[in-house]
Amino acid sequence: MIFYSGHSRSYPQKFLVVFMFLLVITISGCVLVDSENVILCAFAWFDVHGDMVRRYLLAACLVVYFIRVTLMLFVFLQRTLRWCETIPILMIISATLLAIAYYGGNSRDPFNWADVLWLLLYLGGSTISTVSEASRYRWKRDPANAGKLYTGGLFKQVRHVNYTADAMLFTGLALLTHYPWMLAIPFIMISNFVFYLVPNKEIYLRHRYRRAFKEYQERTKALVPYIW
Questions:
Q1: What's the CA gap between 188 and 167, in Å, rounded?
Q2: What gap in Å lies between CA 183 and CA 201, rounded to an integer?
Q3: 142: burial class by Cβ within 10 Å (0-12, 13-18, 19+)?
Q4: Nearest Cα to 59, choosing from 19, 32, 97, 23?
Q5: Looking at the whole model, is its pTM more than 0.85?
Q6: What are phi and psi of 50, to 5 degrees?
Q7: Residue 46 pLDDT > 70
């Protein structure tokens, strides 16, 4: 089972994730903002020459993503982070961020009003993820809630709002690149949620919370309010 109730600080795993993401985002951000920087001559293969506004906004989005992941790992995430999930996630997300920076940075299409919508989709996903995790974290810190299922805040609307938020933000980033095939990234991610992560997580939650989760499941949708 990929879900479990163990708790530990998992500092080696967390510091590795943060270090690698910082490296990836630093390289991507510097290339996006200043592709002529001689310090980055070793990354000539990563040279980008697309629309300047798009490049700067993508760099800002990557910085926001790094801050959010760091906050999630060291504040909100209380369960054990195992190596068997750390390494695959680290490799997949690092490759995804590099691809978004490279292709988005090479898009010569001028930033337009449609891009404002994609940017808002990204910011909306980031905000929903952070707010939902923060509200659950505060609730679980109360000793009176120990061993109870959290169903408040945005989790009142959908059972896996954090997955919904990730789908939103990566869809926004993919659309910002102006490369249609980059939508394969959120498509694969959503497919993973629908066919693997959500079913397995719900098996775990039913086993742990029993009647409480069954009632919660009956009155809420999994990923999309009122739909599914």
A1: 10
A2: 25
A3: exposed
A4: 32
A5: yes
A6: -85, -170
A7: no
